[in-house]
Specification:
single chain, 465 residues, alpha/beta, eight-stranded mixed β-sheet, three-stranded antiparallel β-sheet, 17 helices, 15 strands, globular
Length: 465
């Protein structure tokens, strides 16, 4: 197993002359002119200090529309758009090559990228492949994604969305509120992967429920549906499933199992906003989905999140939990103003990240080997690029010395006390992930031109022996 041998080896390279890489990587959170303009207008119009604002309402409606969007077939999407709003199609690069200079850190919008006008409720429209074929989902072109976003914006003006969105103060709170809205309570058991964001485990515990740890998929980082399928239907009340590192969970299998067993399930799409998965966006497959706008997420406002659902009963329960009568866990008008322009560029950022990942897979053999065949699909929203290493600490030290933003993954819960949670089996895959996962931040994946070349050279100079 050549790839496994490479991933176990020790890095031996010093990075003379490359320590400045961090200085030329794109800034994140982004400092884009349209974000500044949107926030400034929110302040000038006085909405920033209001309980309710057009920015918050517009963001809610757009996310609700996107959560009900059907990404197949593309022709049906395009046919629903007003004629003047359609993006050019065909083989033309959707961004006309305008990616910035690679040093300033901006991802340039294309010539016909939509721009948000925060003072009105509407929008103005201005001028190597993945290594695991079984993990691929049908690629959705950036032009199509752009058209879907435009359609959601247009529908926002015309009508109330078919789905529902409740904005909340964080993705972590969104998972907890989602469990409450699904009537999960004290004594209920909730299945969750033993390798997951720790806040999901705490959300389960916070409502008095008991986590049931399931091993991770051997071909990914999410809950293994084969293990889930072994459970007695009476054993659990709900399931929490996360998409991690741009690798989608098997939503079709998980959804089928949950439906057969009458389980509700929460789709944690906090890392993967607007990522196409099986013909819909991430977060649109479960009983409800959760998004996050916190920290350095691909859509970021420092804090914030959203819960989306097509079930009016769940939406009503969320409203009952949060309306007191003012919103108990709001997204602020300033946060919404910062987020709205990012929706228009997300597909471009994803394309940039995909291009960088393709270069890394093709040109950095040790990294490709260390991914062990698990690579984000080309239309992924990739928050972190994951790979495995038995010498994680020393490898991360080398990456840090080179100025590459990198870190380790989550701590596996496979050793958690049985007084705290139950488990199915020994969770060997979770143990492996907890000990070996290394992550390259999406800020590095946004590198372009000279910065991208330098990133590749830095990684090529690592020699695992």
């Amino acid at each position: 197993m050549e790839g496994q041998n490479r991933s176990q080896a020790q890095p031996t390279t010093k990075f003379d002359g490359f320590s400045g890489l961090g200085a030329v990587l794109p800034a994140w959170p982004p400092d884009w002119p349209e974000i500044r303009a949107s926030v400034e207008q929110c302040i000038l119009q006085g909405w920033w200090g209001s309980y309710q604002s057009p920015q918050v309402d517009t963001l809610r409606r757009i996310l609700a529309n996107l959560s009900s969007a059907d990404l197949t077939p593309p022709s049906a999407i395009a046919s629903n758009l007003p004629t003047g709003d359609r993006a050019p199609t065909g083989d033309r690069a959707p961004i006309d090559g305008k990616w910035g200079d690679g040093a300033a850190g901006d991802v340039e919008p294309d010539a016909v990228s939509p721009g948000f006008s925060p003072v009105s409720p509407g929008f103005s429209h201005g001028p190597r492949p993945a290594m695991s074929p079984e993990m691929l989902r049908p690629a959705v072109s950036p032009d199509v994604l752009r058209e879907v976003v435009l359609m959601a914006m247009n529908e926002e003006v015309a009508a109330e969305p078919a789905s529902h969105c409740r904005l909340v103060s964080s993705g972590s709170l969104g998972v907890e509120l989602g469990l409450r809205a699904l009537n999960v309570g004290s004594g209920d058991r909730v299945a969750v992967c033993g390798y997951d964001y720790p806040g999901n485990l705490r959300a389960i515990e916070s409502i008095g429920a008991r986590p049931l740890l399931i091993d991770a998929d051997p071909t990914g980082y999410s809950l293994d549906p084969d293990q889930l399928n072994k459970l007695n239907p009476a054993d659990i009340k709900a399931v929490v499933v996360s998409h991690l590192y741009g690798i989608p969970a098997d939503v079709e299998a998980i959804g089928r199992i949950c439906k057969q067993n009458n389980w509700q399930w929460i789709e944690d799409a906090c890392q993967t906003p607007l990522m196409p998965i099986s013909g819909r966006f991430a977060g649109s497959h479960g009983s409800l989905g959760v998004l996050s706008f916190g920290g350095s997420k691909p859509l970021t406002a420092g804090n914030g999140g959203a819960i989306v659902t097509s079930d009016v009963r769940i939406a009503s329960k969320l409203n009952a939990l949060l309306d007191r009568p003012s919103d108990a866990a709001p997204v602020s008008p300033l946060q919404a103003a910062a987020l709205l322009p990012q929706l228009c560029r997300l597909h471009l950022c994803n394309l940039r990240r995909a291009q960088t990942i393709a270069r890394l897979v093709d040109e950095v053999s040790w990294l490709s080997d260390s991914m062990l065949g698990v690579c984000p699909p080309p239309d992924a929203t990739c928050y972190k690029l994951a790979f495995l290493s038995h010498c994680r600490d020393s490898l991360l030290a080398e990456l840090h010395e080179a100025g590459i933003p990198a870190g380790d993954g989550f701590r596996s819960m496979h050793r958690s006390s049985r007084r705290r949670c139950d488990r199915i089996g020994e969770l060997r895959r979770c143990e492996q992930l907890g000990e070996q996962v290394c992550l390259i931040d999406h800020r590095a994946l946004l590198a372009n031109n000279a910065a991208q070349d330098q990133l590749v050279q830095c990684l090529q100079r690592i020699r695992l022996t």
